[in-house]
Amino acid sequence: MFEDMVLIIAENATVGEFAALLKKFKEMGVTIKDTEVQENGDFTVKTDTKNPLNEESIQKLQIISRNISVKSSNNLNGKMRLPLSQSVVIVPWFPRQISELDAISNNVFMYGKDLDANHPSFKDETYRKRRIEFANIAYNYKLSIVYRELLKLYKTHACRECQENMPLLQKYAGYCEDDLPQLETVSKFLKTREFLQGLAYRVFYCTQYIRHEAEPFYTVEPDCIHELMGHVPLLANPEFAQYSQELGLASLGVGDEDVQKLAKLYFFSAEFGICKQDGQLRAFGAGLLSSVSELKYALSDDAIRKPFIPADVVEAECMVTAYQKAYFTTGTFKEAEDIVRHFVLQFKRPFAIRYNPFTESVEIVDNHKKLGVALEDIKAHMSALDDAIYQFTNSEKEEPWKPWKMGEPKKFD
């Protein structure tokens, strides 16, 4: 704790940095006692505070500018300088609570603003204007031919997980050829940076419009058929949901270059990924599962397919208004998750993060105390698993578990 301190502001500091510092003083209850210009041009500000400042408070001040350093007033000539360039790293803002996703939801888009001039929706001004209005009624739009054709193709082209979850979506989420389900119903069934940040919280941003009627079997931009027929069946699979969240968590706090790499990893897996199951190629990317024509093409002999190697994937070109020049294949979602997890270890950020599903928040782990708390939490989960393993193994040796059911809750008068 420091009763008072001196801030040294380098002569090349901007007026904006100094103004930001004064604003931070006000927020922290800091008052200025004296100011002085040094012979070397640096500007010193002597302060005192209503409450003693700790190291955390000093770090908040240092975030203001690289040209500001701090030391205590009784150590003015000492060596206790804490330049920001050595002690504090500025990372891109990211949401720490799920509620903060509201602030970025309007910024999420992948493509669609700049459509290719050859696409029918580019030339159809009436369609483009109506699409805003259709946001409220898109789910009543009947396009059963796409639904029926995709279901036929799924039997021979879609991955096992997609085929397993489609009957559940038909039973519980209103999937049928006569009507598109409401996103609210699907959400209840399931439970570029902003988009990836949403994935970190297991939040998936959906479009609300439908593709142009001139090309029902192919769309250059995501629509509600893309979301509901392509993404939802896979997001209902725990392994794929975990893979998507891993990509989202990896994007938090890293630089723009790393975010672009993650975006391509997502694009060529969750959007246009192909896996091998029982020796056969099967699509699991939503861009393929929602496009009759590209689904056929991607699994045909005409398409180029390569192994899912991150170093190659991040160099590939993302085709938005045409079929992909190449597709990437992997074995399972778990395999892709392990590959991506190993790849993102090279990303630089001054802390580790962990997702807390109970508070729906991202926890920053940047010191030994927080690491200890995280380890204790993991130990608690491991203890529960150990108990389950013990009960299960003992029951097999002694007496198998008997069928059971829950009794009625007690009634209190």
Describe the structure.
This protein has 413 residues and is α+β, with helices and mostly antiparallel strands. It folds into 3 domains: 2-87, Alpha-Beta Plaits (2-Layer Sandwich); 98-356, Phenylalanine Hydroxylase (Orthogonal Bundle), CATH 1.10.800; 367-397. The chain is 44% helix and 14% strand. It has 17 helices and 10 strands. A 4-stranded antiparallel β-sheet has the order 2-3-1-4, with helices on one face. Strand 5 and strand 6 form a beta hairpin. The longest helix is centred in the C-terminal third of the chain and has 30 residues, at 368-397. The radius of gyration is 28 Å and the shape is extended. The termini are far apart. Fe cation binds at residues 226, 231, 271. Pfam families: Biopterin_H. GO terms for molecular function: iron ion binding; tryptophan 5-monooxygenase activity.
**Structural class, judged by helices and strands?**
alpha+beta
Overall average residue pLDDT: 72
Give the name of the CATH architecture of the largest domain: Orthogonal Bundle
Order of helices and strands: EHEEHEHHHHHHHHHHEEHHEHEHEEH
What is the molecular shape? Answer: extended
Rg is: 28 Å
Family: Belongs to the biopterin-dependent aromatic amino acid hydroxylase family.
Domain Biopterin-dependent aromatic amino acid hydroxylase family profile: 79-142, 182-393
Binding site for Fe cation: 226, 231, 271
GO cellular component, one term: neuron projection
Topology:
Layout: E1 2-9, H1 15-28, E2 30-37, E3 43-53, H2 55-62, E4 68-72, H3 84-87, H4 120-123, H5 125-134, H6 144-157, H7 160-172, H8 183-190, H9 194-200, H10 224-235, H11 238-251, H12 256-271, E5 274-277, E6 280-283, H13 286-289, H14 292-298, E7 305-307, H15 310-313, E8 327-330, H16 333-343, E9 352-356, E10 361-365, H17 368-397
Parallel strand pairs: 5-8, 7-8
Antiparallel strand pairs: 1-3, 1-4, 2-3, 5-6, 9-10
Binding site for Fe cation: 226, 231, 271
Family: Belongs to the biopterin-dependent aromatic amino acid hydroxylase family.
InterPro entries: ArAA_hydroxylase (IPR001273), ArAA_hydroxylase_Fe/CU_BS (IPR018301), ArAA_hydroxylase_sf (IPR036951), Aro-AA_hydroxylase_C_sf (IPR036329), Aromatic-AA_hydroxylase_C (IPR019774)
